[in-house]
Design goal:
The protein has about 675 residues and is α+β, with helices and mostly antiparallel strands. Strand 13 and strand 14 (about 355-365) form a beta hairpin. Helix 12 packs antiparallel against helix 13 (about 460-470). The structure holds zinc ion (ZN).
């Protein structure tokens, strides 16, 4: 059996250790023991205090998780603040902060650059903590500034509020601070609430206020609240010269000041500190919500000189960050067709103020994104403005859903021109590939006229904008039927420049076929692919009739490009525009096709020379030739340095097709081997 002295000794040792580990865990964020070890010590202390209730003290760590209120107590008692708890004036711009500094200097004419302390402003609930003889005796809310609720029991559950101040005993110290809920704890609390069919809290501030109002401190204890202390209140037996000194001292006493407080000389330095926090706070610099910065005159004697208005002190001001998030109602989702034909769903919502501007629309990027975020028309949505200018929709607020919201589906046809839409596999984008789509017309015209394509000098940005705006051009083919007078009447167009551009347009009709192929803007067909295609398919008609397998048989053409070409020509509007181009006399055939058929070689010099077209090439003959026998044909090829094979493969350069060709012809088609008629072959031999 232990003696009373031994018991007192043990209890005090336990309390001391628990205080120490509490501080290491909650304030230093550097625990030295496991939670289990801590709990074991706490249990031992509670057991001993139960056996010897006369040894319980108000600052014992066991007193944090207070007992529930007595039955019948339904409200908090009221506390009168010894010194009124004022709130701060808010400012929203640098100009307003500078005006604050001017007012301070005016009241203190003998001061030059004022020293300021800048602290992050926590978005929480303001409280007062009262320590008598260094023991926490009373905590209250701000209330109306003069009177607040006594929430001592709930505040005791907050681990970062010491029940006893460290160091020498201070007769009286009252401090003010902000109780808040860290973001992680907030998220967890809301998850639990949703899981148990309770309404989740709108934000950490509301969750904090709700938790402090709970009449059962055992529930508050589970809410993981935290505090930062920022202002002295009533004091006896202790004094400070500066605000900075106060913040340093309370840290030593076991109270928690805000992270990142800084002493600044002059308002410019203070402002730079505010701006730097505004820029970076969204990146999770601190694990709780801050909504601005507080700028305070550092010297406490100046506080007395400056005084206060009925509402707020004249020696401090809050600099509020621009709101980065806001919630609003999503009224509709419309689909925009960009200049490259890509469709973008755009959110249209009730106008809302965000980051200093009123916004009513934001991009939703693509259909996959809307599906992933499950955003529906009619939803209340959270809008965010980050570093970029364009706001984005963060998420739908699911708890605000009524069931009447509509799921969005992408249209099947282009909302501008009604053409069928294309979704390329492996890409999120859905696009309109109609070359006459008005939404894309400007871009298509620019591309068509560009140097690498039809190279039409004078048909630049300004002229194109006017041609489209005045509806003088509805597709690329229309430039060949321009009304000269109408063009001459456009801005910055004289007779001479009109004549020049009309001539340049006329001249472009004779441009290489490959340039036209590039210019009409088939997706994935760049200038190199256009060159290769023009060699394999010497006319537009050939190419428009090519099957995907034939296109893919060309080594440089991949399946994605092949499919894109087939799709392009299948679109009726595209065919119409190409026919219009043909009708006005735009060249639609390779020069090579006028001479001989091109081999699979990609070098044009070879194409022009029939001899070299045969030398080193492999031929396959099928069907009956009229002018010469099979044997003679083979001899003609061999004498010119070519080879004759009996079967068609990818290595075959030409298949000469006579009457009633066999399966070799089909295979040649399939492998996209160049087919020669008897006449073609004869020309080649010549
Ligand atoms: Zn379209």
């Amino acid at each position: 059996m232990s003696t009373k002295e031994e018991i007192v000794e043990r209890i005090e040792a336990l309390r001391k250790q628990l205080h120490h580990h509490n501080r290491m865990y909650y304030i230093e964020d550097n625990p030295e023991i496991s939670d289990a070890e801590y709990d074991a010590m706490m249990r031992e202390l509670i057991e001993m205090e139960k056996a010897y209730p006369e040894l319980i003290t108000p600052d014992s760590p066991s007193q944090r998780v207070g007992a529930p209120r007595e039955r019948g107590v339904e409200a908090f008692t009221t506390v009168k603040h010894a010194v009124p708890m004022l709130s701060l004036d808010n400012t929203y711009s640098k100009e307003e902060v500078l005006a604050f500094d001017t007012r301070v200097k005016k009241a203190l004419p003998d001061q030059n650059d004022i020293e300021y302390v800048v602290e992050p402003k926590v978005d929480g609930v303001a409280v007062s903590l009262r320590y008598e003889s260094s023991i926490f005796v009373q905590g209250s809310t701000r209330g109306n500034g003069l009177m607040g609720d006594n929430i001592t029991a709930n505040l005791k559950t907050i681990r970062t509020i010491p029940l006893r101040l460290e160091g020498d005993t201070i007769p009286l110290l009252e401090v003010r601070g902000e109780v808040f809920m860290p973001r992680k704890a907030f998220e967890k609390l809301n998850e639990e609430r949703v899981a148990s069919s309770q309404e989740p809290f709108a934000n950490p501030r509301n969750a904090t206020a709700g938790s402090l109002k709970l009449l059962d401190p055992r529930i508050s204890a589970r809410r993981k609240l935290d505090i930062v202390v920022h202002t002295p209140g009533q004091m006896e037996g202790v004094s400070f010269n500066t605000h900075f000194e106060f913040l340093e001292e309370i840290g030593k006493r076991g109270l928690k000041a805000n992270r990142g407080y800084k002493l600044c000389i002059g308002i410019e330095e203070a402002m730079r500190c505010c701006e730097s926090w505004e820029e970076n706070h969204a990146d999770g610099v601190v694990p709780y919500d801050i909504d601005g910065m507080v700028i305070k005159v550092n010297r406490l004697e100046l506080h007395d000189l400056l005084g206060a208005t009925s509402k707020s002190p004249r020696w401090a001001v809050a600099f509020k960050f621009k709101a980065r998030q806001a919630s609003t109602v999503l009224k509709d989702i419309v689909v925009q067709v960009g200049r490259t034909g890509v469709l973008t769903p755009v959110a249209i919502f009730e106008p809302v103020r965000l980051g200093g501007t009123v916004i009513s629309r934001a991009t939703l990027h693509n259909a996959d994104e809307i599906k992933r975020k499950d955003i529906r028309i009619g939803d209340t949505v959270l809008i965010e403005k980050g570093g970029e200018v364009i706001p984005k929709v963060v998420k739908a607020v699911l708890t605000k859903r009524s069931g009447a919201e509509k799921v969005f589906t992408m249209p099947q046809r282009c909302p501008v021109c009604s053409a069928h839409l294309v979704k390329v596999e492996g890409e999120v984008a859905i696009r309109c590939e109609n070359i006459a789509c008005p939404a894309q017309l400007r871009n298509r015209l620019k591309h068509f006229a560009s140097r690498g394509a039809m190279d039409i000098e004078g048909l630049g940005h300004t002229l194109i904008e006017q041609l489209v705006d005045k509806a003088l051009v509805k597709d690329v083919a229309d430039i060949y039927n321009l009304d000269v007078d109408a063009v001459a009447n456009l801005e910055r167009m004289g007779d001479k420049s009109t004549k020049n551009v009309i001539e340049a347009i006329e001249k472009s009709k004779k441009m290489d076929f490959s340039r036209l192929l590039f210019g009409i803007g088939i997706p994935y067909v760049g200038s190199k692919a256009a060159d290769i295609l023009a060699e394999h398919f010497p006319t537009m008609r050939d190419l428009s009739r090519a099957a995907a397998e034939q296109l893919e048989a060309i080594p440089e053409i991949g399946p994605r490009t092949a499919e894109s070409i087939v799709r392009f020509f299948r679109e009726g509007e595209n065919a119409t525009v190409i026919e219009k181009l043909r009708a006005v006399g735009v060249n639609m055939a390779s020069q090579a096709s006028a001479q001989v058929l091109s081999p699979t070689a990609t070098r044009k010099s070879e194409i022009r020379n029939a001899q070299s077209a045969i030398r080193g090439r492999t031929f396959v003959l099928t069907g009956a030739l009229q002018s010469l026998t099979r044997h003679q044909a083979e001899e003609e090829i061999k004498t010119r340095g070519g080879k004759v094979s009996s079967s068609v493969s990818r290595k075959t350069d030409y298949v000469v097709v006579g009457e009633s060709p066999g399966s070799k012809y089909d295979k040649a088609m399939k492998l996209n081997v160049r087919i020669l008629s008897e006449q073609d072959f004869a020309n080649m031999l010549r």
